[in-house]
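Entry 12.
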Amino acid sequence: MSLQAVLDEMEEKMMKTLEVVHNEFSTVRTGKASTSLVENIQVEAYSAHMRLREVAGISTPEPRLIVIQPWDATLVQAIAHAIQKSELGINPVVDGKIIRIPIPQLDQERRRELDKVCKKLAEDGRIAVRNERRQGMEAAKKLQKDGKITEDDLKHAEKEIQQKTDEYIKEIDTTLAHKEKEILSV
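Predicted 3D structure (tokens):
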């Protein structure tokens, strides 16, 4: 494995970590209706578990309302049950063949709890990025030890690895700041 391959693999894993952090943040409720809150909820449908977005249309016609229209009317109760079992803490209202989910206003205590959740998600992301840095450093040192790269190449690689790590951690921090602002603004 070449040094460039090590660096490319490390950066690809860091990108995937950042993507996971973004996806996790999108599932945190902010008091505004968003389809991302519910689209990945697992629904028991046709003797299998499927994501909600695979069995229904999801829309947000109002700032505090999510409307779900199952493509098969027999799934209405299964979808409502899956939403109730989810960790969102919201209750769906079955209205014939559609499900309405009113998003209540968040109180300050709940906002602080959600802020803590976001900080934990961000820290988990930073830890994952640092783990990728460590693995990249170890791989580069092994290449130098095996005589495949020079000591100067190793120093240059270590700087580049640290630079990429700082870049991805900064992106996580920026995303966290944006999400916190969204949660804590009344």
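Annotation: The beta strands are 42-45, 48-51, 56-62, 65-70, 93-95, 98-102. The chain is about 60% helix and 15% strand.
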